[in-house]
Structure to design on (950 residues):
């Protein structure tokens, strides 16, 4: 029986479809109290006084802590997990991010006090009784404004609101010269707008200090429980890591926003020890908008040069990236190593230079959101290519074929060295575009479009041929780039005496279906039934270590770690089997769940070997009992999925409303373990990418108020905003990991946004080349663009 | 001050004292430990909390517990019978209509409401019926397929939704 490549139905679904999933907020501990956090209503203000007396006297209130208590306890702020230095080598500015602010609040939603009460409603009632006097100060929210002289300063320690500046690529002078010498230059100035990740499960954390064991337990909505434990113990609270259990149970989506270590996690753990009872904090949606790390928010100028044949000659990019008021865990990596490094795209561009400034503003923190840097890179590249095609009167597909990097498999041919540090592992780019054109019926579409235009109907087609980098690694390289963590993964494969298998993985599933996909891999490799395998994840007491799930890394890195442990199991198993079969190890082969002496019918099954390993009576001399192996897998390179996305839209000339008529995606994510799950990942990513193009965007007003911080105001994609998707796949295996997999979690979100925007621009082509139309492409904006 | 309510939930009768301001979703989750209904928002927009009251889909985050006095409430926990998934639940499993599962109970209950009123909905009708339910994971594509699967199954077996 082979499982790999089959759309095996998910193991997880029984509990989720019957309401038996166990999410953090579903957990109730004996004696549990409830926390509510009082947050700043101002973007920038001095706290003059805080009066908690009335609130403290409110019946049912257990305790109230403020920033003063946190400071008095000597608690550090939440640290950054990545350091990017200034171009001149000086360290990035890293102002503290306190758990609760005592003196000056720096964004709407900044925590000021935590009220702990017998129940949530009482905590909220009491929070309303806290009186805080503020002196409101001027705020800045736009990163490009923030770095100008005279802008309100977020941190005294970061002059001009600069966290760092950074560059990558060929020497700037060479790129400037190449642009200047180009036959045609396409230039775009745009904003890649701020996004709210909006996992439907709001964040939640339960802290429990058990003094009888001197042990802490944190239940949290995390994509990354071990890293949360490490950061919280070592850098924030200074509590012993071996006395802290972090559990991320079922987690209701993350999309990046649950990678990071948040102040509330440390708060409930610390405060639980102070009050001697467990504490639950659960965010409501309004708080989620204000405090879950946002994504994107780049202000960018990008220029692409072409020769007279349409070959790209150079790319120059300037970006100011908004970090928000504080540096979230991986924020510095996003506009730099996950953005600048992707600017080669799929093209042979010989000269590339990117300049990035990371700026503080009086807004919520910005960090990785599905795709993290790669959507920003892809957006600017793909918008430039389609805009250039319009400007030069060329076909956008043709322009891409002209500039694609030729195919390379990374095995017989070397990887492709980009101008921006990365070396692509394997790629074959033409087929995805060819297949996309075939699926969309390109020639026919152009005819239909011309016909429609005659009838006053605006149809448009938009392309995006993207590349992304997943499974960011190896540790030594990311360390040199500023990561303060390794980016490997761990896995333990414990064969039980009966031959059943428990797998402990440091990857964390919050919708990706690891319990199914990983079990498929293990079942195939061991030749046993999937039902005999249990995948354990998300609990630091059972899983030795983990780097969590983000950056489409789970299968490429976590799956590879599992394979490594399986190899060790089989290696030891072979020794035991050789002994039992009285044969030499090299005469054995393993298939179908048993070791067979080659060329004979003498064999012994996996279950028998497992039992022998734990009941080692008749056993190889000198061999340890047991069949249980751990591994750490540190990849040798990133993986590089790619694909072609095509959107067809219709724009209503009277209202400016954009209707997405069709969406075609042809992705190459390497080998596929479970096609059904991969398709699902693509679908979800597409919806988010399309959401950015047409609907979504966090809006701060000039005072730093988040004006659309609810589901009534922030346009989440709904079922009737989207069509059914038409998807297909090509397979170019990853040459450097044992499964040949690349990662599929972010592809849909990376490729789709520019395809949709390009399609709208194509539809609007009768109005000329429109350049100042910003996402989301709301009817009002599109209508204005048609009437300017 | 609390108020006495009697309500039948998933076929079982409960009599409880509730605070007048308590929302149904918290009554279900906290008093009864029926945590299938989830809370995803505070504006009655996301539908993660959807349950059926006397057969009609209602957002339990916008309903007071006192309002269900004397009614029949069905939550996602009440659909599977004797360990067999309800056809709508099975549809979601078959067609991969869920990823993280957080929106799923609400989606399933909304689908139950839809299929009671429209046993053979078109894709457009399904998408329209789900406009009060957000899913951030699936892009809705497979949720549509899941509900189509369930509709077909219910028709083939001539079974009532509830
Ligand atoms: S929680 Fe009820 S609609 Fe969102
Ligand atoms: S499955 Fe995660 S929100 Fe729908």
């Amino acid at each position: 029986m082979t499982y790999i490549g089959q759309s095996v139905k998910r193991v997880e679904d029984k509990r989720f479809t019957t309401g038996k999933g166990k999410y953090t907020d579903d957990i109730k501990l004996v004696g549990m109290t409830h926390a509510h956090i009082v947050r700043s209503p101002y973007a920038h203000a001095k706290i003059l006084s805080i009066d908690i007396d009335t609130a403290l006297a409110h019946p049912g209130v257990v305790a109230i802590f403020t920033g003063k208590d946190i400071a008095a306890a000597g608690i550090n702020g939440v640290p950054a997990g990545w350091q990017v230095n200034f171009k001149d080598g000086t360290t990035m500015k890293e102002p503290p991010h306190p758990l609760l602010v005592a003196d000056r609040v720096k964004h709407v939603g900044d925590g000021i006090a935590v009220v702990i009460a017998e129940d949530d409603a009482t905590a909220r009632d009491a929070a309303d009784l806290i009186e805080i006097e503020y002196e409101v100060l001027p705020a800045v929210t736009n990163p490009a404004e923030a770095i100008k002289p005279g802008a309100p300063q977020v941190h005294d320690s970061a002059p001009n609101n600069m966290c760092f500046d950074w560059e990558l690529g060929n020497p700037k002078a060479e790129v400037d010269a190449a642009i200047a010498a180009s036959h045609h230059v396409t230039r775009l100035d745009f904003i890649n707008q701020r996004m709210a990740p909006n996992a439907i499960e709001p964040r939640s954390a339960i802290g429990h200090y058990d003094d009888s064991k001197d042990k802490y337990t944190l239940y949290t909505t995390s994509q990354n429980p071990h890293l949360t434990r490490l950061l919280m113990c070592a850098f924030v609270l200074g509590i012993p890591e071996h006395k802290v259990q972090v559990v991320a149970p079922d987690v209701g989506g993350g999309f990046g926003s649950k990678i990071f270590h948040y102040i509330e996690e440390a708060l409930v753990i610390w405060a639980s020890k102070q009050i001697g009872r467990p504490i639950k904090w659960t965010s409501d949606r309004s708080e989620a908008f204000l405090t879950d790390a946002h994504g994107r928010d780049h202000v960018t100028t990008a220029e692409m040069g072409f020769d007279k044949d349409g070959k790209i000659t150079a790319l120059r990019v300037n970006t100011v990236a908004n970090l928000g008021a504080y540096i979230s865990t991986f924020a510095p990596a996003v506009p730099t190593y996950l953005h600048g490094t992707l600017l080669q795209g799929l093209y042979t561009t010989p000269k590339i230079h990117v300049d990035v400034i990371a700026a503080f503003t009086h807004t919520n923190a910005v960090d990785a959101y599905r795709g993290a840097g790669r959507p920003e890179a892809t957006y600017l590249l793909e918008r430039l290519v389609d805009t250039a095609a319009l400007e030069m009167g060329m076909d956008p597909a043709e322009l891409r074929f002209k500039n694609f990097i030729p195919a390379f498999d990374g095995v017989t041919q070397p990887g492709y060295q980009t101008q921006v540090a990365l070396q692509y592992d394997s790629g074959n780019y033409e087929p995805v575009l060819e297949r996309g054109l075939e699926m969309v019926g390109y020639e026919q579409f152009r005819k239909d479009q011309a016909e429609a235009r005659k009838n006053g109907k605006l149809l448009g087609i938009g392309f995006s041929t993207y590349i992304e980098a997943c499974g960011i690694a190896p540790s030594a390289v990311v360390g040199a780039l500023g990561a303060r963590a390794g980016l490997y993964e761990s896995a333990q494969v414990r064969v039980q005496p009966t031959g059943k298998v428990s797998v402990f993985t440091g990857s964390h599933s919050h919708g990706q279906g690891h319990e199914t996909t990983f079990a498929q891999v293990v079942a195939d490799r061991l030749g046993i039934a999937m039902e005999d395998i249990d995948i354990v994840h998300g609990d630091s007491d059972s899983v030795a270590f983990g780097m969590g799930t983000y950056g489409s890394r789970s299968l490429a890195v976590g799956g590879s770690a599992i394979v490594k442990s399986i190899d060790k199991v089989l290696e030891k198993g072979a020794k035991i089997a050789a002994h039992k079969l009285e044969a030499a190890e090299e005469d054995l082969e393993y298939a179908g769940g048993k070791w067979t002496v080659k060329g004979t019918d003498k064999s012994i099954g996996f279950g028998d070997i497992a039992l022998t390993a734990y009941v080692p009576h008749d056993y190889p001399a000198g061999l340890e009992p047991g069949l249980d192996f751990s591994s750490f897998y540190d990849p040798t390179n990133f993986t590089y999925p790619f694909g072609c996305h095509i959107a067809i839209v219709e724009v209503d000339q009277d209202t400016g409303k954009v209707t997405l008529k069709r969406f075609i995606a042809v992705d190459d994510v390497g080998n596929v373990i479970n096609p059904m799950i991969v398709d699902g990942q693509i679908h979800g990513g597409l919806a988010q990418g399309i959401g950015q193009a047409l609907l979504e965007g966090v809006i701060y007003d000039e005072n730093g108020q988040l004006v659309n911080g609810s589901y009534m105001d922030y346009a989440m994609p709904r079922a009737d905003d989207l069509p059914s998707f038409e998807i297909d796949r090509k397979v170019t295996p990853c040459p450097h990991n044992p499964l040949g997999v690349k990662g599929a979690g972010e592809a849909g979100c990376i490729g789709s946004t520019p395809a949709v925007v390009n399609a709208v621009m194509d539809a609007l082509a009768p109005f000329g080349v429109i350049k100042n139309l910003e996402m989301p492409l709301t009817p009002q904006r599109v209508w204005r663009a048609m009437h300017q | 001050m609390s108020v006495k309510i009697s309500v039948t939930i998933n076929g079982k009768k409960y009599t409880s004292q509730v605070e007048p301001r308590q929302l149904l979703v918290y009554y279900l989750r906290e008093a009864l430990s029926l945590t299938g209904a989830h809370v995803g928002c505070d504006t009655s927009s996301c539908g993660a909390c959807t349950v059926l009251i006397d057969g009609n889909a209602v957002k339990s985050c916008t309903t007071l517990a006192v309002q269900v006095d004397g009614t029949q409430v069905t939550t996602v926990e009440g659909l599977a019978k004797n360990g067999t998934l309800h056809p709508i639940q099975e549809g979601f499993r078959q067609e991969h209509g869920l990823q993280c599962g957080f929106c799923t109970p609400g989606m399933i209950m909304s689908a139950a409401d839809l299929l009671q009123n429209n046993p053979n909905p078109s894709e457009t009708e399904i998408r329209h019926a789900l406009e009060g339910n957000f899913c951030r994971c699936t892009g809705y594509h497979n949720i549509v397929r899941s509900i189509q699967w369930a509709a077909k199954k219910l028709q083939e077996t001539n079974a009532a939704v509830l």
